[in-house]
Design goal:
mainly beta; six-stranded antiparallel sheet; four-stranded antiparallel sheet; 1 helix; 30 strands; 1% helix
Length: 370
Amino acid sequence: MTRRFLLGAFASVALLTMAGAVTTAARAQTSYSFRDLGTLGGTYSNAQSVNTSGQVVGYAFRPGGTTFGRDEHAFYWASGVMTDLGTLGGTWAQAFAINNAGDVVGRSQIAAPGNTTRAFLWNNTSRVLTDLNTYLSVADAANWVLRSAAGINDNRQVTGEGEVSIDGVVYAHAYLLDLNTGFLTDLGTLPGSADSYGFGLNNLASPQVVGKSGVPFLYDSAAFALLDLSPLWEARGINNAGQIVGAVNPSGSGPAHPAYRAPDGTITDLGTFTSNSYAGGRAYGINNAFPAFVVGKADTVVKNTLLPRAFRWRVGSAAKDNLNTLASNRGTFTLRSANAVSDNGSIVGTANNTKNEPSNYDRAFLLTPQ
């Protein structure tokens, strides 16, 4: 279903419109060429980000891998070749974002007891996996450990999550790191929460960052302000126009739905591909096209089972597209989730080619507009 809400920075919600379940395709049609990106020798791969050159990053199982968070390596894919980025000394790594210069960020386990992770940087020029903590000043390194990097923009600014020591107590805080200067900004937390996590940022000179601190937040680095995005339930991506995507929980207790938040605070519930009250979904990415495209996943019913399907929605459209209807050469693959969309319209995510769609057999895909 599609619902729109209007809110102030900390205001109550006013329900503006409500429509039935969205099951038809948007009228702005585009066909795509589907490509299975393969794996690193195992059964699973997941594409997380794509740039305008068609370079893709994510993570994939190696031969014999079966366990998430233990058996996967970060990958970089370009021109038909998937490159294993290795790790920072541990057994696994995940790449989450790539910018248009080919800089890649993510997280990797290190050679230490337990599941200790560090944020990393890789680019296709040096082809060296670097611990992002080496970019910190001496003063910042004394108080911070950057554990994960979730987003990087074209200005080489990075957001993610790290451990910071404040008066001898360690907290998880979102950060903004400028790789050009080494300047680190602690994004802080919202009232009532001790922790925060950065998920995505845009390409503005003073970027805006979205993340979570108990509830979703927007950090405006030009105003040094951390804003509560409630009643948005999750914030995953933001473009240069300040349009935000993530999820909303329309019932307050049931499954979340993919959602879009306009700069004026209007929230659109993008709904699912079924009227089933247990169906849910997420919006993961938005580009800088005009109108912008939003991508994510939304549940549908297949043989009495709820299963996710990748979608595309053009901002302002009445309905979203099931991407499976727009990729005619996908063969027997089913597109389950669309995780990112580049400014020139390429889409990446996960597809499945097995009868009952077990997630550990998902494959990374690339859709190129035709």
